[in-house]
Structure to design on (317 residues):
C-alpha cells in the first residue's frame, strides 16, 4: 500500500537521494518533448496529435523569450492583431503600454506574447509561491513557463486571462467517463516521492516535483493507466527510455525509467496494457522505481497535474 504522508516526508530524500540524482532533479521541470511539445502548446485541439520528434530538453523556453515583434501594416488595429495571434486585446495592450487607442500606425512595432498574460517586474525576494498568491496562478505553472529557474527572475510572464480587463472565463466542460481508470502496475506500489513542493535533497529550499515516483522491481511490467495513443516511445537524454500516451479529455501520461518498450509512437493502447518494463537501478536494484506524470493540455502547453487527483491510489494519505 502507498506510504502515508508523514513517512514520505521523513524518508523520501534520505532513502532515495540517489534516485533524485538519477532523475536529474526532475522536480518542477516540464518534459518538453522537442518539436512535438511546441506543437502541443499551440492549442488544446492538438491534444491527440502525434509528432515523432525526440525529446531534448526538460524545460520549455521561457515565455518572455518567445515574445515576437510584429510590425504593423496599414489598416491593422489592436483588435485585429489580437485576433490574428489568438490573444485578447487586453493582452496586446498590457504588453505594449505605449499603445493608445485601437488603430496602429504602419511600421509600428508591437510585442506579441505566446499566449494571454502580462509581463511584470517582480519585487525583491519574490518566490514562485508568493507570485502564485499575488496573481492567483499555480506556482508550478509560473515556474515552468518562466524557464524552471530556481530563483525568480526580475521580469516574469504571468499567464492567464483572469486578471485581464474584459476577460471572460470559459465554462468548464463536463467530462464524460474517466480516461484514466487504471494503475501503472498490476498491484499498488509504495509512493516514494509525491507530487508537489518538496524539500530539496541536499539544499535548504523547496523544489517542485511534477510527478510521482513509485517503488518497483526490475523487469516489472509497466501498464497504461488508460486507453489512448502513444505519442512518443523512445530515448530521452536524461530520463532514458520514455513513453508518452495521449488520452481523451486532453490528458497525457508519461512513464520513465523503463526497459524493453512494448509500444511505438502511433500505437493504440488499452487501459492495463503492458507498455514497458522497469529498468534495474545499476547501483542498487532495490532502488528501482517508476517516474510517472499526468498532464493536461492547455493554451499554456502540457501542465503537470497531481496524479492522485486522477488515480486515488497515488494520492498521499
Amino acid at each position: 500500500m502507498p506510504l502515508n504522508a508523514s513517512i514520505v516526508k521523513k524518508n523520501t530524500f534520505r532513502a532515495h537521494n540517489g534516485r533524485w540524482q538519477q532523475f536529474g532533479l526532475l522536480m518542477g521541470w516540464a518534459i518538453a518533448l522537442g518539436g512535438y511539445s511546441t506543437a502541443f502548446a499551440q492549442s488544446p485541439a492538438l491534444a491527440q496529435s502525434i509528432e515523432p520528434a525526440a525529446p531534448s530538453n526538460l524545460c520549455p523556453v521561457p515565455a518572455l523569450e518567445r515574445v515576437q515583434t510584429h510590425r504593423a501594416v496599414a489598416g491593422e488595429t489592436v483588435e485585429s492583431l489580437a485576433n490574428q495571434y489568438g490573444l485578447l486585446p487586453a493582452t496586446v495592450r498590457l504588453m505594449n503600454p505605449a499603445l493608445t487607442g485601437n488603430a496602429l500606425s504602419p511600421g509600428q512595432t508591437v510585442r506579441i506574447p505566446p499566449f494571454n498574460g502580462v509581463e511584470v517586474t517582480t519585487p525583491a525576494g519574490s518566490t514562485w509561491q508568493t507570485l502564485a498568491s499575488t496573481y492567483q496562478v499555480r506556482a508550478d505553472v509560473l515556474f515552468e513557463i518562466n524557464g524552471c529557474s530556481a530563483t525568480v527572475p526580475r521580469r516574469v510572464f504571468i499567464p492567464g486571462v483572469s486578471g485581464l480587463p474584459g476577460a471572460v472565463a470559459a465554462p468548464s466542460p463536463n467530462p464524460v467517463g474517466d480516461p484514466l481508470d487504471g494503475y501503472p502496475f498490476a498491484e499498488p506500489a509504495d509512493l516514494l516521492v509525491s507530487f508537489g513542493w518538496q524539500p530539496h535533497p541536499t539544499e535548504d529550499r523547496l523544489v517542485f516535483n511534477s510527478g510521482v515516483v513509485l517503488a518497483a522491481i526490475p523487469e516489472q511490467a509497466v501498464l497504461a493507466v488508460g486507453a489512448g495513443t502513444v505519442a512518443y516511445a523512445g530515448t530521452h537524454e536524461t530520463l532514458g527510455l520514455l513513453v508518452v500516451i495521449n488520452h481523451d479529455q486532453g490528458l497525457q501520461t508519461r512513464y520513465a525509467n523503463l526497459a524493453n518498450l512494448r509500444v511505438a509512437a502511433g500505437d493504440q493502447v488499452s487501459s492495463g496494457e503492458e507498455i514497458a518494463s522497469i529498468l534495474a537501478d545499476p547501483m542498487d536494484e532495490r532502488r528501482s522505481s517508476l517516474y510517472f506524470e499526468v498532464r493536461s493540455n492547455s493554451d499554456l502547453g502540457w501542465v503537470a497535474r497531481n496524479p492522485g487527483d486522477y488515480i486515488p491510489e497515488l494520492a498521499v494519505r
About this structure: The chain has two domains: 5-29+42-57+177-314, 68-112. The longest helix spans residues 5-15. The longest strand covers residues 289-298.
